[in-house]
């Protein structure tokens, strides 16, 4: 009988014990392989206008690190459960070297099988994922089933390395411990943790500092001095604060709850509370990791979903009309009219003509950093009454009544952080009697002319507009609103082909499509990574709690002997787990809320709905892990006699 | 005096068809209120099996058991749990203290489970700690105290809720002779002053000599019993040794 065959039999007989480890390995491989095959998929590459490989490469590096840590962790969990078995071999006189080899082979064989199964499953799944990605990017493409040699090669290389490393860890297991340690896998008599008031205060200070900086606007001094440094400071102080929070503040809280004797001495509370206190020290690190991972995941999902969620709205704000161009005379206008009216899919279609004056302007307002007016050197002036008419057509509220030299800016990308504060600003313009000063009385955060055509649109009073008309050349902007403009590839193409360059044809469709493709991919990446992170996060808590359950079994046996019912035990476990699960989730949500509100400021948009949806989905899956853990924990401590 | 525990025709068989082992065969016994009964017998005689069955931790194959007037061998698991909690106290050889709780918390556990008020709990803990002599160690954790102190803690936990019956399974098994004597003295004081009913399984004749009556079991059946009556503890000890030598087999680890 060779060592190899012992190892093989070991796996075969204890398959159930190995299952968890095996499953998490397969899971990691499937995820990674699917991801890599997406990266090498020709159809995906063709469909995306963005540089797809950069986004995917970055994401796949994150994934490798993550998968590596995850497999390492489940391997550690798995070997801990087998210490006694290994000790028994050693006791029976099997040589350390042989045991080591056996463990090495075992892990290696499992890894090999997991790799094969993972790649097969991944191949089947990748078609589904390609379809999903295409759909999110807004393409209707028939997805062909394909196997990517490159993807297989890359997966095999990455996991061969990971499996080799973990197998080597298994080999080292027997050398790392003394026989006596192996028999007593869990050491007894851990001292009770002390609550340090100083550390608890420090936790609050660090968190408050991190939060405070993150709520400062980007234009504040704190950020402007050194953006990267400030971001790092926030990260460090929040990380440290979180760790100290779990390390001390929670201990403090539990101790405080112990002080309330009548509550503490009520039924099974005494067991749950003391158990939590006993474990919290060892759990501090893992709770910190879970909290931070949750925060990162929520930020990733929240951000990408917000982008995706807002794509249509954003496109609409940028180009409120389906088509816009500067009129180049009657014959061409009629041709356009003919083409549009010929398309039955896009009826009804309506045309709006607006007289405007275009002028080069010179803005030197300070507090408008980062070249805010770079592409707005050209201003488009329109009259108060023209604006009111267009705004009404677009369903925007609030008509204007401007007098004299009063003006209103139209800024659909208005952001508190970056945009100038228009009120009180002035602008020099040319009229028929020389130069004149415009006084801004406010702004509107929407546009009534497609952005690329308009440059920097300014609404002036009707009287002033008449003056401008006399000084310069009046142009007529023709804007069309057609039905189904989100699906107007053909019509857009035809119009673009007949209109000359100086007509400055702008359409809703193409920027919208580009944005959908880019944001769709971002959304896909965010959701994909988020899901992987979430599953891994849940599994880490699950493994950790189950390891503890195995160690706690004795304690629950005692309780059963002195007359604690199973119902009470289950209740107590559910309570303890609730604490362990809810703390990091709560902190994670809080962290991400601060980060996302900073993001919302930055984007100048309200992203509450998509963020709440992301958090909701995350929480629901997380709660499922909670129930799974409570169930398994309960079964583990109550099974047997 | 009323009978605190009654067992009739108790039988316990281990194993399945073809490979059965009868651990207990038709045992009848009765323990009256306020008695301190010892159970002795050679290794494998079934004394621990008997204790487990009488204390509801294990179920008999046949026969009936009454504790404090209620039949317990046909109760459901959760009913048994509450019965154990309300009526019985346990002292085990390996203490079975929770290492996450302080000595005090270990002692109050049964009261907390019974939802006694915190005030009443504090009063009773003080009372018992004083009686058993563990007042100074109340705030310590089990790993910080000696084996004797741990066992006295376990004894305090067993009696704090005022159980009808206390079961002790080799309580002195892991103790040095001095701690063992102290514990046994505590138990017999409890028995005499508080009229606690105690059933103790032991293979130590010295420990058994503290009892008011000792039952001897051999091969799963009742062998004989020895009542202390008015004899001195020393003479009683000698009588127990005599019975044990008559029992023979596996008892060479007497003292």
Short description:
The complex is a heterodimer of chains A (641) and B (255). With 641 residues, chain A is an alpha+beta fold.
Number of strands of chain B: 10
Number of helices of chain A: 21
Name the largest protein-protein interface in this structure: A-B, 29 and 35 residues
Q: What structural class do you assign from the helix and strand content of chain A?
A: alpha+beta
The CA-CA distance between the termini of chain B, in Å, is 33 Å
**Structural class category of chain B:** alpha/beta
Keywords (chain A): Cell membrane, Membrane, Transmembrane, Transmembrane helix, Transport
InterPro entries (chain A): ABC-4_Integral_Memb_Prot, ABC3_permease_C, ABC_permease_BceB-typ
Protein name (chain A): Putative ABC transport system permease protein
Subcellular location (chain A): Cell membrane
What does this structure look like?
Chain A: This is Putative ABC transport system permease protein. Chain A: Belongs to the ABC-4 integral membrane protein family. Chain A: Residues 59-176, 528-630 form the ABC3 transporter permease C-terminal domain. The complex is a heterodimer of chains A (641) and B (255). Chain A has helices at residues 3-13, 15-39, 42-47, 52-81, 83-91, 96-136, 149-176, 179-183, 197-215, 221-225, 227-259, 261-264, 269-318, 330-342, 384-393, 451-454, 462-471, 489-498, 509-561, 566-603, 608-638, and strands spanning 323-326, 350-360, 378-383, 406-410, 426-431, 434-444, 456-460, 474-481, 506-507. By secondary structure, chain A is of the alpha+beta class. Among the domains of chain A are: 1-185, no CATH class; 321-507, no CATH class. In chain A, helix 2 packs across helix 6, helix 6 (96-136) runs antiparallel to helix 19 (509-561) and helix 19 runs antiparallel to helix 20 (566-603). The longest helix of chain A has 53 residues, at 509-561. The two termini of chain A are 36 Å apart. Helices cover 37% and strands 25% of the residues of chain B. Chain B is α/β, with parallel strands linked by helices. The longest helix of chain B is centred in the last third of the chain and has 17 residues, at 177-193. Chain B contains eight helices and ten strands. The chains are: A alpha+beta (641), B alpha/beta (255). The interface between A and B is medium-sized, with 29 and 35 residues.
